[in-house]
Specification:
By secondary structure, the protein is of the alpha+beta class. It contains 14 helices and 17 strands. Strands 2, 4, 5, 8, 9 and 10 form a 6-stranded mixed sheet that branches. Strands 1-3-7-6 form a 4-stranded antiparallel sheet, with no helix packed on it. The protein has a 3-stranded antiparallel sheet with strand order 13-15-16. Strand 8 and strand 9 form a beta hairpin. The protein is globular, with a radius of gyration of 23 Å. The chain binds ligand 9MR. Ligand 9MR binds next to loops.
């Protein structure tokens, strides 16, 4: 299998911010520096310079050189970079580059909503569909869902929320990190100097049914999931009251395509877990402080859920979701929950100021450890979420403590900066196969969140430039010359694994909406399609834009939430 990788000059196909870094990579046999030329859409030479030989890039196996044209700052469209007789895909230089991505990346969540009809007038007629999983035949849920045999003898109404990914499952741990990132993108508008007070995320900024209700649309979208997460809590009076069920999904895996309202499978609640319970505690605590100005009753419900969930987790600290529980839905297993305890304690303390949570977070091993790993945080490792909020959300930590917390974010950002400079393709993750795993594109973005936060904390342009540069990789500056975001860039992924957006299998169905992020190269090739097609691939080549490859090319709420956070940051930098 030889993918068509297009021109050997690899750029961010979306483009570059006028005042930002502008880097490209060329695949070449040459080992001596080469001349580069930046050309206008009309072919005029706008700037020229010389490349830097970088040798063989370990993740791609390619001999590469890099070009830096940051000094050119004039806005333009349809520009191309020419090196070694080859011209790149066209790109723009513009401050408004990422403005629409801010909304596109968030619209994905509306498209993933369960329990509500998707309005074609809002999202485009191709995306209109009836409500899924409201108990209307052939659906069997999610309004009155039993537990798996032997797990409980009550039934719960767990309607709503977002479908996790290309499947119809709903998982509290992954809903947790995704909701956190949307709420964090909103909360950042209260503290970050470049966030313009949050107008760009306010009411009327998204195409959601709730626009015009006086509440910022990003909060309306996040609330759709929060209401579901609250419903997953074990009711008072039942065994394990206050804990959260780990997940709810089909009894058996279904095929593709399958519209949510056509899913005939029985739906089942899986056992409560400590990790899910702490995810609920953390995001419900965020909810309590962020919705208070808009809906005091809802904020109060969140606060109660957060405190009861946290107490239940402390009473049952070792209920782990089984790695074997992956029939009909993903496992989302996790046997180390000290990081979830830390994150939940942080959020509860930031919201309530109660000394008991401060005592818990201070006693956590994560409070003094480096929580930022080279390959980024994710649903299984969430200590960084707590640390980032402790560093940015106003709180009463003693000055020296707060300084140490903030310094840890900046140290981590220094590490990611050094890493992206080492990489010929500029990504802020180590250059070996270990960086190419299931959903790794979201980890690239999560490291970008840390760079962006370091900029918000310090105002030091090196971190902003690092964050801006890091996304070049996702928008086409990579071995496959592909943008991993649908609708963004000349050559972009659009056949992501999804039961809903299954255009590749049925031309009457849409592609994923613009702004949908693919999981990305996965050197472990964990689906049969990729394993057969891509056997022996160099890590950065272990990806295929085919709907069958769920381990390299799925969509997922926790990946798009990372994109949404970063897109909002980038849009702010273009405007700044
Ligand atoms: O994102 C998850 C990834 O970290 C795991 O390695 C993988 C296998 O367990 O599962 C991924 O999550 C999938 C989930 O299990 C089911 N819904 C689709 C998710 C994205 O592929």
């Amino acid at each position: 299998y030889e993918p068509d990788t297009g021109p050997r000059v690899r750029v961010n196909q979306v483009g570059y911010l006028p005042g930002g870094p502008k880097n490209a990579t060329v695949v070449t046999e040459a080992t001596e520096p080469l001349p580069w030329r930046l050309r206008s859409a009309d072919g005029d030479v706008l700037a020229e310079g010389t490349t830097t030989p970088r040798g063989v890039d370990p993740a791609s196996g390619q001999n590469v050189q890099t070009a830096d044209f940051s000094a050119y700052r004039t806005p333009g469209t349809g520009l191309r970079l020419e090196i070694d007789g080859e011209a790149s895909h066209p790109f723009d230089i513009s401050g408004g580059l990422y403005e629409r991505l801010r909304a596109d990346s968030l619209q994905f969540f509306y498209a993933q909503r369960s329990g509500i009809a998707i309005d074609g007038a809002l999202l485009g007629e191709a995306y209109a569909r009836p409500a899924g999983h409201l108990g209307v035949a052939p659906n069997q849920g999610d309004t009155d869902v039993p537990c798996q045999p032997g797990v409980c003898d009550y039934r719960l109404d767990v309607r709503g929320g977002w479908y996790d990914a290309g499947d119809h499952g709903k998982y509290v741990v992954n809903g947790g990190i995704a909701t956190y990132q949307l709420l964090s993108a909103f909360e950042r508008t209260k503290t970050a100097a470049t966030a313009g007070g949050g107008a760009a995320l306010g009411d009327g900024t998204l195409r959601v049914p709730e626009h015009g209700n006086g509440v910022p649309d990003i909060l309306d979208e996040a609330r759709w999931e929060l209401e579901f997460l609250l419903r997953m809590q074990v009711p008072a009076g039942q065994p394990l009251a206050g804990m959260a069920h780990h997940k709810i999904h089909d009894r058996n895996w279904t095929g593709l395509p399958l519209a949510p309202h056509d899913d005939p499978q029985p739906r089942e609640l899986h056992p409560p877990s400590t990790a899910a319970t702490l995810n609920l505690a953390a995001v419900a605590a965020q909810c309590a402080r962020l919705y208070a100005p808009y809906d005091a009753a809802f904020a109060g419900r969140c606060r109660t859920a957060a405190t009861t969930a946290y107490a239940a987790a402390k009473a049952h600290p070792d209920r782990y979701a089984s790695p074997a529980d992956s029939t009909g839905g993903g496992a989302y297993d996790d046997t180390r929950v000290t990081d979830e305890f830390y994150w939940a304690a942080v959020e509860l303390w930031l919201t309530t100021g109660a000394p008991a949570y401060l005592a818990d977070l201070t006693a956590s091993p994560h409070h003094t450890q480096d929580v930022f790993e080279p390959r980024g945080f994710g649903w299984q490792g969430v200590a960084a979420l707590g640390r980032l909020d402790l560093a940015t959300v106003p709180n009463a930590l003693p000055a020296a403590e707060l300084a140490r917390v903030r310094a840890s974010v900046i140290d981590a950002a220094d590490g990611y900066l050094a890493e992206l400079r080492r990489q010929a393709y500029g990504l802020p993750m180590p250059g070996d196969a270990g960086s190419y795993f299931w959903g790794g594109n979201s980890n690239v973005l999560n490291n970008t969140v840390v760079l962006a936060t370091a900029f918000d904390l310090t105002g030091d342009a090196r971190y902003r430039d690092g964050a801006v540069q890091a996304v070049d990789y996702l928008f086409g500056r990579n071995a496959l010359n592909i943008s991993y975001v649908t609708g963004w860039g000349e050559h972009a992924a659009r056949n992501q694994h999804s039961r809903i957006f299954a255009h590749q299998l049925d031309p009457n169905l849409p592609h994923p909406p613009a702004g949908s992020l693919a999981g990305g190269p996965n050197a472990a090739l964990q689906d049969p399609f990729a394993a057969q097609l891509l056997a022996g691939c160099a890590p950065m080549f272990c990806y295929v834009d085919d709907i069958n490859s769920y381990s390299t090319n799925e969509v997922a709420i926790n990946w798009n939430s990372a994109l949404a956070w970063v897109a909002s940051f980038l849009a702010d930098q273009g405007a700044a």
